[in-house]
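Supplementary Text 2. Reproducibility record for the structural model of the 348-residue chain.

All settings were left at their defaults, and a single model was retained for analysis rather than an ensemble. We include the record here because the model underlies the residue-level annotations in Supplementary Table 4.
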Amino acid sequence: MVFPGTALKWCFLFFTVMNKEKIIRTVRTYLLPLAIVTGCIIYSAFHFLAFLSPLKPYVAVTLDKAIPWFIFTMLFVSFCKVEVKQMKPHRWHFYLIVLQTVICVACTFIIRSFPQAGFALPLEGFLVCVITPTAAAAAVIGGKLGGNESSLTSYMLMSNVLSAILIPLLFPLISDNGETFWHEFSIIVPRVFPMIVLPLFLGLFVRYFVRRLHHFIVNNCKDLAFYLWGITLVSVTGEALRCIVNSDESGFMLIMLAFSGLISCAVQFAVGKLVGHQEGQRVTAGQGFGQKNMVFGVWTAFTYLSPAAAISPGTYVLWQNIVNGFQMWYRTRWNENRAKEGLEPYQE
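Retained model, structure tokens:
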């Protein structure tokens, strides 16, 4: 048995040996698995420990209020870093925007036409994965993979505006809440549109009119979005696990929902790379179309569709990070081979 005093002593020694930079670097490297494991542990504690049951309603209400603000803050900090002068549209931007719109409208039409079909729920999860906007972190990851960060940032802005338009228009058509289209529309618009569009305008306003605040954010809060993403991912992981455990769906349907997230991830990365390859921005377009803000995706699915539909975007978090991990490994190997041939690292 390890006594508390002994545990505290070892913790003190650990933080003494490891300097601040090493701790931060370690946390950044393993934030994804740490957040997922922490979310599972916290959910398990509330699920199995009876004395925590009275806290469940308060935690649920707190998270319901906090998650939208976390998403807003993450986007705001990211948009504060946007340099408008470096942004310019490319043809692949419009091709992917049109393609995303067509896929979302087609999925909505099929779900609405066959609401009782066995494929309707997995297709609903697929729709959520496609309609979700590009993640703010896509530009960072894309840059590390040799992509064009300015081009990717431009597409991220377009993707967020498109999602803010499509979600209020399409989700009421397939929602099973029993309300009219306009009632659902009036509920979704005030929450979704300001959450993902207002941060853009606020970020631009701060950049050009409140320069001191902008300077402070850019220089002192550059990692804030990353850590907020990690905190929010803890909540999303717990929420996704709760959806799986409490779901009335069969085991086969749960597998199909996870598979739907996998298929949507593979399709979007592949299609993005294929479209971007025509303009020499294969990596950039692949990240733009494939790396999604699934914290927002899980929240919208759970809030406006059904808990089961949130399973697909919940698993998408895992699939897209597996893809990114493989791409980082492949880029390292590829650039090593290019260096042996006297070539510069790949850069778009």
